[in-house]
């Protein structure tokens, strides 16, 4: 029961990011996302920094589970790596799984291996008491 709407936190308890677009820095950016959000070749350094999530992490950022593949040709794996490193630097719990193959967009089943990434995610959620066994 919500007693006072102003006291309700909208911060998620955790996040699960699968081959995420994190950064709008030139070296990591998914060009289509950057163009769609910031405009074609007109983004200011201030806007790039503001929309680069790895540069916005604080100790209050939700714990995060990250999944990516090294051979992702759509969103560079460096996005997940940069976010993970920034989370750890800020003291935020994080877990990251990077597959050598799988590309981008494989959903719940990466057909290039027999590993079950979603079960790893469930295990992480249970270990942090967000999901009961």
Primary descriptors:
133 residues; three-stranded parallel β-sheet
Could you characterize the architecture of this molecule?
The protein contains four helices and three strands, in the order E-H-H-E-H-E-H. By secondary structure, it is of the alpha/beta class. The protein has a domain at 5-20 and 60-127: Rossmann fold (3-Layer(aba) Sandwich). Strand 2 (64-69), helix 3 (78-89) and strand 3 (94-99) form a beta-alpha-beta unit. The longest helix is centred in the middle third of the chain and has 12 residues, at 78-89. It is globular, with a radius of gyration of 16 Å.
**Unreliable sequence segments:** none
**What is the topology, as strand order, of the major beta sheet?**
1-2-3
CATH C-level class of the domain at 5-20 and 60-127? Alpha Beta
Number of helices: 4
Secondary-structure topology with pairs:
Blueprint: E1 15-18, H1 31-38, H2 45-51, E2 64-69, H3 78-89, E3 94-99, H4 117-127
Parallel strand pairs: 1-2, 2-3
Summarize the structure.
It is built from 4 helices and 3 strands.
């Amino acid at each position: 029961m919500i007693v006072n709407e102003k006291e309700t936190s909208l911060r998620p308890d955790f996040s699960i990011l699968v081959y995420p677009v994190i950064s709008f820095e030139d070296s990591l950016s998914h060009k289509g996302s950057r163009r769609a959000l910031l405009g074609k070749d007109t983004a200011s350094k201030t806007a790039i920094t503001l929309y680069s999530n790895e540069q916005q992490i604080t100790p209050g950022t939700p714990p995060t589970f990250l999944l990516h593949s090294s051979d992702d040709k759509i969103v560079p794996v460096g996005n997940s790596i940069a976010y993970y490193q920034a989370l750890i630097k800020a003291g935020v719990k994080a877990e990251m799984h990077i597959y050598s193959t799988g590309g981008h967009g494989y959903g719940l089943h990466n057909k290039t291996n027999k590993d079950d990434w979603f079960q790893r995610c469930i295990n992480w959620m249970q270990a942090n008491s967000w999901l009961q066994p």
